[in-house]
Amino acid sequence: MNTPLHRLHAITKSIIALTLLALLVIWMDYRFFLALDLVIILLYAVARVPISWLKIIPAILVTIFPLTLLLSTFLYSPLLFRVYPLEEVTRTFAELSVPYFGILKLTYGGLIWTAGMTNRFMALPVFFLFVFTTPVSQIMDLLARLRVPKGMVLAVGAMFKFIPLLVSSFSTTIAAQKLRGWDLSTVKNPIAKARKAMPLLVPMLRATSFVADELTLAAEIRGFGSSARFTPITELKFRKMDYFMCAVFSALLVSALVLYIQYGAGLI
Amino acid sequence: MTYAVEVSDLSFQYRGSSRPTLRNVNLKIEEGDIVGIIGPTESGKSTLLMTLNGIVPRYFPGDFKGQVLVNGINVLDHETHELANNVGIVLQKPDTQIFFPTVRDDVAFGPSNLGTPLHELLRRVNFALDATRLRGYEERDPNTLSGGEQQSLAIAGILAMRPKIMAFDEPIAMLDPIGKRKVLSVVEELVKEHNLTVIIAESGSDIEQVVEVTNKVGILLDGDLIAFGSPRDIFTGILKKDIQGLSPAVAELFAKLREHYPVEQFPITVHEAFELLYDHVKTAQISPEYGPPSWPMEAVSPREGRIAEPVINVRRISHTYPTGLQAVKDVSFTVTNGEVVGLIGQNGSGKTTLAKHLVGLLKPTNRDAMIDVKGTDVIRAPISKIVKVINYTFQNPDEQLFCDNVFEEIAFGLRQLGYPEAQVEEKFQRTAELLGLSQYRDQVPDALPTHIKKLVTIASVLILEPRILVLDEPTTGLDKSRIDIVVGHLVRLVDKSTLDSLMIITHDMDTVAEYCNKLLVMSEGRIVLEGTPREVFIQRDTLEKLSITPPQITQLASSLSEYGIPRDLLTVDEMAKILEKTAMTKR
To answer: Is pLDDT above 90 for B178?
Structure first.
């Protein structure tokens, strides 16, 4: 893959990713974060990150959204809102008195807050964007330049190998146990379900330990543990586009922070 | 004289183990040697290799006695990474030795760790890529390489560190025939071109290919190095002592024939055997009655006394993975009662994908496919019903065993399906007896030898009383005698009609020659050859195109066929019987 984003230096991509993540955190107002989402989607499309990677998102939303919505029913105090008019944010759609908890209210402000919090799932596409467009060797190189300890740098590298190996082993275990009559789908009770997962857990733990041992052994054989400084094979150079993107995203981050601190831009 | 490797009085016992893994091993390997360390599974080969760079006893502690010198350096005086420039070890499984998403990055990993300056690093990477014939693959994702290429990449990763000695722990055991050939030719070239010293551990199932490249072999039995020297001397010696299963088939043939064809040294290659037999066979009168077309030999005879009825009927299966890879293309075949089917072909030819359809783990991606197993529509039936008709065992027992004892492990399936305890006990006893596992009832599966673990996994599905069993690579990691135990047990179940049929997915041609009476050869998602092993293994041209090498005996028979030797012989016994007859005729 050789998209414009792939061609950028790892440091540039880190700056882009960090800017996007920071803005996702501070921008709770949908008028701001929808624009940001658009930028993320655009970058995602330019980098040609597989759409299939996003399959996990519905599961995350299904988990996050109801919890956030529930939490928002506690947030009806006008003091929590700085930008939106008080009469708007305190507009109540439903109200419930719960013993011990007090009054819970579903308000317009609570819904805006829920939207802002839920939108933070967009951090995941940003992470995918970075991982997909940055080879592991560049990530390791970047970490090494940031003076991250060598063991940790190599652990990050090995993780990219470790996880797929485990996933493959785990799928085999599931298939093997199914062929012995094991079926988790029929059990509804969560405790019974956890107990019934034993046929997966033991082989999974064994596989984790085996793969970790094998990878450690293979790394050791290849000189891992030497006190010498790791030599990255790729010598990345900053190009014009890197300077340009770094300038654009740094400016965006700085101005967003200034506006946020000074005028509450992005707040609700 | 300084040897490349000098092992003196080496004994090692793993912490917690009840017996030593290595016992008083003495070994001297000269620079430029290619040494095969041959021994059955769990005989101490890997441990011996791992002492060469101090992984044993540094990472696997235990009682270490004796001395290991590598290029004159005592390995215990140095850390493993300090020895990386002296000894490189290539492990059995390529996938756990590859770390990076591109070939080039992965090859560079070793020298990068050692802080090699960039210009030297690039030089070494290029050298390793050239030596392993991976030039042009620099930017490839290792996951997209074939098994042989992945192992070549693992070799390149070690080679880039410029070790003087390279040790290979069963480097071709998990590879398909093309992969085996590729890796061994790379090894041979490394020694020729770069004067490396090479040590290869081998448990016996790939012995013929390995000894073709070695100039010395050592035989390791139960931790004892019982012999070390030139391959012909060593194999002649051990066969005369009646140690079977660790020698090339042609050497075993001459051991059987030693009364009729006395030779000083047994041959180890087909060519050598041909040279020794040529003069005799040329002048012998070989009667057509000695050989095919009707050639009823015990080991591979069709199961007689049964009405041949189809038990598996597969029509027009195709399977395309979500990635777009079409792994199986319009495959149809039938298996009848009593057939032991060998499913062979290169990695990626579609064998496992096809076999998983037979038990419902995968569904065809075309609509007009049909899979009928003993009247069960496998495409639509629930898996709980399928597993009682046909079942499947995976290659690695560790990926499914989880119970505290063998009884619980084997009984698990029945309990899941709600069988009463009395019936569970009864069926356990019957299954354990069938596979010779009764004595292991209370033992922890984890602590059992690999071949017994494999039998436990087989028993854990056999207890559901399927009529057909599919075994995925049952021979991987096992030596000949243990293969005979595992596969032999199951073939006998077909003989006794406890099973209607058995399907074995394998790269081991000796096993299919010995045990199967039908072969399905797959290539690029299709079945390209189908027939008995005799019918398949004589199709030299087609097999050559598919890079499948027939058993050594079939190759020898084929080379002698113009002198009347039947060209479809499969086993040492078959060839020995004919040659004995011709020897007697001559007298």
So the answer is: no
| Spatial separation of the C-alpha atoms in residues B186 and B178, rounded to whole Å | 12
Residue B379: helix, strand or coil by DSSP?
coil
> Packing angle between helix B480-495 and helix B450-462, nearest 10 degrees?
20
Look up residue B8 and give its two tokens.
Answer: 């003196």
Give the integer Cα–Cα distance in Å for B210 and B193. Answer: 19
Q: Is the ipTM of this complex over 0.90?
A: no
* B contacts of A202 (beta carbons < 8 Å): 401-402
Q: How far is CA B309 from CA B387, B462, B497, in A?
A: 20, 22, 13
Q: Which two tokens stand for residue B39?
A: 């021994």
| pLDDT reported for residue B294 | 41
Secondary structure tally for chain B: helices H, strands E: 21, 20
Q: Could you give phi then psi for residue B295, rounded to 5 degrees? A: -135, 75
Find the largest Cα–Cα distance for chain B. Answer: 72
Q: For residue A127, give the DSSP letter.
A: H
A195 in contact with chain B, both atoms CB, cutoff 8 A: no
Shortest distance between the Cα of A71 and any Cα of chain B, in A, equals: 39
Residue B300 near residue B495, CB atoms below 8 Å: no
Residue in A closest to B360 by C-alpha: A179
Cis peptide bond N-terminal to B94, omega within 30: no
Q: B211: buried, middle or exposed (CB in 10 Å: 19+, 13-18, 0-12)? A: buried
CB contact, 8 Å: A173 with chain B? yes
Give the C-alpha separation, A134 to B263, whole Å.
Answer: 64
Considering only CB atoms, which chain A residues are within 8 Å of B114?
A: 223, 226, 228
Mapping DSSP to helix (H, G, I), strand (E, B) and coil, where does residue B322 land?
A: coil
Buried b (16+ CB within 10 A) or exposed e, B442-457: ebebeebebbbbbbbb
Model confidence, pTM: 0.80
B417, A181: Cβ pair inside 8 Å? yes
Neighbours of B132 (CB within 10 A): 28
Following DSSP, what letter does each residue of B57-69 receive, concatenated? Answer: HHTS-EEEEEEEE
**Which of A179, A182, A202 shows the shortest C-beta gap to B359?**
A179
What does the pLDDT average to over B479-506?
Answer: 92
Please write the tens of the pLDDT for every residue from B374-395: 999 999 999 989 999 999 999 8
| Residues A182, B416: C-beta atoms closer than 8 Å | yes
For chain B positions 489-548, those within 8 Å of chain A (CB to CB) are: none
> Per the CB < 8 Å rule, is A181 touching B387?
yes
Residue B310: phi and psi, rounded to 5, are -65, 135
pLDDT at B237 over 80: yes
Q: Residues B355, B343: contact at Cβ < 8 Å? A: yes
Residue A32, pLDDT > 50, answer yes
A203 at B interface, C-beta within 8 A:
yes
Shortest CA gap B402–chain A (Å) = 5
d(CA A44, CA A38): 10
Place of tokens 């006998």: B492
Chain B environment of A234 (Cβ under 8 Å): 105
Judged by phi (left if over 0) then psi (alpha if -120 to 50, else beta), residue B474 lies in alpha
Q: How many inter-chain contacts (A to B, CB under 8 Å) are there?
A: 167
Q: Report chain B residues whose CB lies below 8 A from the CB of A135.
A: 101-102, 105
In B360-402, which ranges are continuous DSSP H helix?
Answer: 383-386
A143 touches chain B (CB under 8 A): no
The Cα B347–Cα B365 span in angstroms is 21
Query: Are the Cβ atoms of B100 and A136 closer than 8 angstroms?
Result: yes
CA distance A162 to chain B (A): 8
- Closest residue in chain B to residue A179, using alpha carbons only: B387
B contacts of A160 (beta carbons < 8 Å): 101
pLDDT in tens, A33-82: 999 999 999 999 999 998 888 888 888 888 888 888 888 888 877 778 88
